[in-house]
Every structure is written in structure tokens, then in C-alpha cells.
Amino acid sequence: MRAAIATAADPDQPLRALTVGEAPEPDVPAGWTVVEVRAASLNHHDIWSLRGVGLPPDRLPMILGCDAAGVDPDGNEVVVYPVVADKGDPRGYSLLSERFPGTLAELVAVPRENLIPKPAGVSFLEAACLPTAWLTAFHMLTTRGRVAEGSSVLVQGAGGGVATAAVALAVAMGKRVYATSRDSGKRERVAALGATAVEPGARLPERVDVVIESVGAPTFDHSMKSAAPGARIVVCGATGGHLATVDLRRLFAMRLELLGSTMGTRDELAALLELCVERDVRPVIDSTYGFSAVADAFAHLESGDVFGKVALDFLH
Ligand SMILES: NC(=O)c1ccc[n+]([C@@H]2O[C@H](COP(=O)([O-])OP(=O)(O)OC[C@H]3O[C@@H](n4cnc5c(N)ncnc54)[C@H](OP(=O)(O)O)[C@@H]3O)[C@@H](O)[C@H]2O)c1
């Protein structure tokens, strides 16, 4: 079967570690099943894997990809929940492509309970954008950020997959949303989603109740300064650098909560799908590539010049 595979680790030029070619069909352990992938999407996670972050050399070659939607052996249209219980990992779980082969292949094996029915009104491409970036944003806003208790949200680095998801979801939840981006074109696009777009570091008209932080060092001080008393600053990533300075005086004086966040549960992914249908929210898709152009899709994501998700259509 065709697959996109990490065959090396290159911290500086991650695309050099990518091989697109043939891979053996997946083993299917007891309790697992196989999904015929119709659509997948890329995440920054895949770039980290190619850099060797979270994917040590002894696990190579590894099929990349966390996100997919497709068809199970009974013909059901399904979305794949990418978190797999994993006794071999110190966290007790791993993401597809970390220890078990990922979704950027014509077939992917997953535990049966990881399949969620795909609603008819959500396309395969849209569904394939939800399991990592959108689920992460949903979990950050709801379970971690308790956004229902507040009325305003700041999203840093608005162009990213997690960030566009957070903006679209927070707007759909009726919150006042502010978003930063370094790029004026992305600021225009995020404004069209319903956010007030500002330059990185700009003073906001109000302090916010929840900050969605996935950029890290370049934006973290602004996240702290933009937080209202009692606000939650929820961090899921550090694309721009993971060593940031924390003003502890501000942390305690403003009673801020600084929260780490990873992914979300299977039930949250099901709830997210429901919310997308009920409120007519759909993932922001930057671009769609046929699987034969998967290397171009990676290059586009790595360029950082994206607004929303980079999706892969396996039927083309
Ligand atoms: N913990 C989890 O479960 C989890 C889940 C998903 C993602 N993540 C992490 O979250 C991060 C975002 O993921 P993603 O898939 O959304 O990535 P992405 O689509 O590649 O988005 C990255 C965005 O970050 C901003 N950015 C990048 N470098 C920056 C810099 N030096 N200064 C300021 N902004 C910068 C850019 O926004 P602008 O160009 O608009 O400024 C860019 O659009 C990644 O680090 C990823 O590993 C974690």
C-alpha cells in the first residue's frame, strides 16, 4: 500500500526524512480493525516526528499521520480517534504514528473502540481534520479552559490548525474572540471567522478569561499580560520555542491558572462531531492535496504559510 513514512530524523531539514512509497499492509492485533483511509490531514506533530522529536531512531521506519476518516470492513463511514492505550509508553498512551503505524497510508489498523461514526453531513475531508488539532482546541476550550464560565478568549498564532479550530469553536460557542497573527493576510482571514485580529503583542481592548497558547516562547508573555484575574492560560504546544519566562508575581497576584493540555478523549471527539453538525461549524481547510502530492503537502505545512488544515484526499 502507498504510505508517507519517516525513514530518518532530520532536526534541521525534516522533509529530507520523509519517504513516500510502498509499505506492508498493517498487522491487526486482536480487538483492532482496519480502516480504508479516504482522507487524512497533516499536523505539526508529523513535522516534529520527521525532526526526530518524539520518534527515536529505534522506531523507524514509521508511517506518519494522526488523523484520518475512512471506511471500516463493514462499510461504515468512520472517523479515527488517534489516541491508543499503550503500556510501552510512560504516558500510558501514544498517538498513532508514535509507536503504532499512522494514518498516512491506504490502510490503518486501530483498536475497534477508536472508531466513531462519521455524520453524513460532514465530508471525509472535513472529518479527517478533526481528530488532532480540532479535538485539542475543543479540549483546551472546554475541559481545561472552562470557557463556559467566561466570555472572552485569546488565541495566539491564529494561522495554525489548532488556532483556527479554537477561533471557530469559541466563536460558535458565542464568546468574544481575539486572535494574533504575524501575517496581515491571516489576520484578515481570522477576522472573517469572527475574531478581532491583532498583531502579536498588541494590547487587547479587554483582558480575557481563556488564552489558547500553542506558539510558546514568542507569545507567552503577551498571553500572561492579556489574562484577566482568574483566567486560564492553556498550553498545548510551543511551535516557536518551549523556553518561556513566567512572571510569577503576575501569576499569583492575578490568580492565573497555567494549564498544560494534550489531545482530548474519544467521547470529546464524538461531542465535537455533534457540535459541528448542530452549529454548522466546519474545519478551516487551507488546502487539499491528492495523496500522490503528499510531499508537497508537507512542504506547504512546514513553510508555516498556512491558514487552517492541510488535508489529503486519498481518492485522488
Ligand atoms: N498537546 C497536544 O495534544 C497537541 C495537539 C496538537 C498540536 N499540538 C502542538 O501545537 C502546536 C500547533 O500545532 P498546529 O498543528 O496547529 O501547527 P501549525 O498548523 O503548523 O501552526 C503553527 C502556527 O504557529 C504560529 N507560529 C509558528 N512559529 C511561530 C513563531 N516563531 N512566532 C509566532 N508564531 C508562530 C503561526 O501562526 P501565525 O503565522 O498566524 O503567526 C503558525 O500558523 C504545535 O507545536 C503542535 O505540536 C499539541
UniProtKB/TrEMBL annotation:
SUPFAM superfamilies: GroES-like (SSF50129), NAD(P)-binding Rossmann-fold domains (SSF51735). It holds the Pfam family ADH_zinc_N_2. It comes from the Bacteria. Residues 13-312 form the Enoyl reductase (ER) domain. InterPro entries: ADH-like_N, ER, GroES-like_sf, NAD(P)-bd_dom_sf, Zinc_ADH-like. This is Zinc-binding dehydrogenase. It comes from Paractinoplanes rhizophilus.
